[in-house]
Amino acid sequence: MNAWLQSMGLDGLKLLLSALLLPPVPWLVLILLGTAWRRRRPRTGWALVLLGVALIWACCTHVAADHLGRWLLNPPPALRDPDGLARSAPAKGQTLILVLGGGRNRPAEYADFSLTPISIERLRYGVWLSRRTGYALAFSGGLSPGADVGPTEAAIATRIARDEFRQPLRWAEDHSRDTHENALRSVDLLRALPPAAAVSRLVLVTHEAHMPRALGHFRRARDAADLSLEIVPAPVGITERVAPRSLGDYLPSPDGIARCRYVLREWLALLARA
User: Fold this and answer.
1) Tens digit of each residue's pLDDT (9 = 90 or more) over 203-261
2) 200 domain-assigned
3) Could you tell me which of 83, 93, 64, 195 has the C-alpha nearest to residue 129?
4) In terms of CB atoms within 10 Å, which of 20, 99, 196, 201 comes out highest?
5) HEC profile of the chain
6) Closest by CA position to 200, among listed 125, 91, 123
7) Peptide bond into 24 cis (omega under 30)
8) How far apart are CA 265 and CA 215, in angstroms?
9) Are 163 and 267 contained in the same domain?
10) Could you tell me if 65 and 167 lie in one domain?
């Protein structure tokens, strides 16, 4: 689907579809329909209004985001034993830690472009894994659809990893525009490596909700390239519960709606194979 939209020059359509399909728009439509039907069918109308209000409330909470993530995406668990990666090194080939970009921005407090909080969180975890295991670190991310000026995500990540984290990247893939191209272009780079530098295990770093879709793209790209490559998921932003629920988990919050929208966006993208 991504390739079709890009070939037609309709990248912006993805943003419009996301805005229309993700909360709160569908639930607002329910409320409007219920309001319109209240005179002709009072029970149906009020039921739709109350349902819309309840869904808006639910999709603004942490508890809904947690349940939706598990039910719809079934993401892999956290990498419990990063030290075990070093102890279980493959017999042939190297291990590479690959961080997937999640966007860039240009905050007023900096003189140049930076990475979004999502990208920074992924890069930070990749740097930590690289230091913990001693494996090389790489990054994949170009310009998002519709962006045609300024440095790529990979160029920004290279600078931040080197200057701020003091952990230089081994290489950076800077032409991909989405997850599908992250996989295709990264696998192409891995396939082109000389035998002495061949990678046989890839530790993939991205957010928990994004990981199922990313794994699907990377596995399909690996199989299409006939590449012998073990892919190890290393998700960040884990929502596994380590403490009892609190009242705040059931109350609307900015983080709750952001997480619900992220989970539902990834679920819709999985359905569309985007």
Assistant:
1) 999 999 999 999 999 999 999 999 999 999 999 998 766 678 889 899 999 999 999 99
2) yes
3) 83
4) 99
5) CHHHHHHCCCHHHHHHHHHHHCCCHHHHHHHHHHHHHCCCCHHHHHHHHHHHHHHHHHCCCHHHHHHHHHHHHCCCCCCCCHHHHHHCCCCCCEEEEEEECCCEECCCCCCCCEECHHHHHHHHHHHHHHHHHCCEEEEECCCCCCCCCCCCHHHHHHHHHHHCCCCCCCEEECCCCCHHHHHHHHHHHHHCCCHHHCEEEEEEEEECCCHHHHHHHHHHHHHHCCCCCEEEEEEECCCCCCCCCCHHHHCCCHHHHHHHHHHHHHHHHHHHCC
6) 91
7) yes
8) 16
9) no
10) no
Is the four-CA dihedral 55, 59, 60, 63 of positive or negative sign? positive
Query: What pLDDT score does 184 carry?
Result: 97
Contact 115, 160 (CB under 8 A): yes
Tell me the pLDDT tens digit for each residue of 75-107. 999 998 888 888 888 888 999 999 999 999 999
Residue 233 contacts residue 122 (beta carbons within 8 Å): no
Sequence length of the chain is 274
Question: Does 241 reside within a domain?
Answer: no
**Phi/psi-derived region of residue 33, left when phi > 0, alpha when psi is between -120 and 50, beta in every other case:** alpha
Q: Model-level pTM greater than 0.70?
A: yes
Phi/psi at 173 (5° precision)? -95, 120
Q: Considering only residues 53 and 92, tell me which one the structure prediction assigns the higher pLDDT.
A: 53
Mean pLDDT calculated for residue range 55-67: 95
Co-location of 207 and 184 in the same domain: yes
Q: Other CB atoms closer than 10 Å to residue 220's CB: what's the count? A: 15
